Recover the amino acids of this structure.
DNA sequence: AGATCGCCCTGCTTGC
DNA sequence: TGCAAGCAGGGCGATC
């Protein structure tokens, strides 16, 4: 499941292998992969043709490739299973290949969007004056963004009548955090996933943000080592970092801090993993 | 109007 | 053994 660290690894790969190349031709093999491009697959392909790719950017789990000499960008979201791969022309088509982009230069590689579950996709959008695609203007800055405002995040938490994990997954409050890194950061911060956001003190918020950043930076460091010149990204899963997870996916295993058995609880049609001793449930108020 | 729910999608795993 | 249910889950539109 690509979250911020995995998407950043992809962005870096694109910067190295795709930036500054000119599109010769784009081919959409599955219309659902470009469903956010309202004008349709043919329009998407047509508009890419002949344009040079700029330096890729990222916010949260979204990344985009500016089209030079236009005021537009190719927006990409990997969803659950999406991959952006740089492959030799001769590599056989992947089973779930959705979009192919060929370039005008003599390099023997092309860009491929491969996505089994098709939750992800590519689309073309106008940029806002800030240079980000207009359709993601509502996505908050992510915790690795130098302009992320910790104080504003704390105030937003205090205003909300919600619980902390919902807030961490709310991409309009803080972006880039998914189910895995939410559980990991909460475990590190010793906070239960259902703690009401209104109970957060400033030190607790800042501590949690610190753990969010720590776990993402650790994952990013490991993701970098799995980089391969053929593959722009990792493998679409958690990369090598899954070996370092302390909570997510560890139901029935001992907490690495206190030895108590890690629990899994159904939550919002997914799962929350936590240590019942380190992460005490909030007191129920009548 | 903010919070919550349901749907989209496929392949692997689990259980009867 | 075979089939079906369960599970993975981000984001967005609909609903309360």
């Amino acid at each position: 499941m690509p979250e911020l660290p995995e998407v950043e690894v992809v962005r870096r790969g694109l910067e190295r292998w795709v930036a500054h190349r000119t599109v010769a031709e784009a081919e959409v093999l599955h219309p659902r992969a470009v469903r956010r491009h309202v004008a349709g697959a043919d329009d998407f392909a047509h508009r890419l043709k002949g344009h040079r790719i700029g330096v890729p950017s990222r916010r949260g789990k979204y990344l985009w490739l500016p089209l030079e000499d236009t005021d537009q960008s190719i927006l990409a979201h990997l969803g659950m299973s999406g991959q952006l791969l740089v492959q030799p022309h001769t590599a056989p088509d992947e089973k779930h290949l959705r979009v192919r982009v060929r370039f005008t230069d003599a390099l023997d590689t092309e860009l491929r969007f491969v996505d089994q579950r098709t939750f992800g996709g590519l689309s073309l959008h106008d940029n806002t004056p800030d240079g980000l695609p207009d359709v993601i203007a509502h996505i908050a800055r992510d915790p690795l963004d130098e302009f992320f405002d910790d104080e504003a995040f704390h105030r937003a938490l205090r205003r909300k009548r919600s619980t902390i994990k919902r807030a961490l997954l709310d991409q309009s409050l803080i972006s880039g955090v998914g189910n895995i890194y939410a559980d990991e950061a909460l475990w590190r911060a010793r906070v239960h996933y259902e703690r009401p956001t209104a109970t957060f003190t400033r030190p607790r918020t800042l501590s949690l943000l610190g753990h969010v950043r720590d776990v993402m930076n650790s994952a990013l460091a490991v993701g970098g080592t799995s980089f391969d010149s053929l593959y722009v990204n990792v493998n679409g899963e958690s990369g090598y970092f899954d070996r370092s997870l302390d909570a997510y996916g560890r139901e029935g295993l001992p907490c690495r801090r206190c030895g108590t058995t890690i629990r899994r609880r159904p939550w919002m049609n997914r799962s929350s993993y936590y240590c019942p001793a380190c992460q005490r449930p909030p007191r129920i108020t009548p």
About this structure: Chain A has a mean pLDDT of 88.
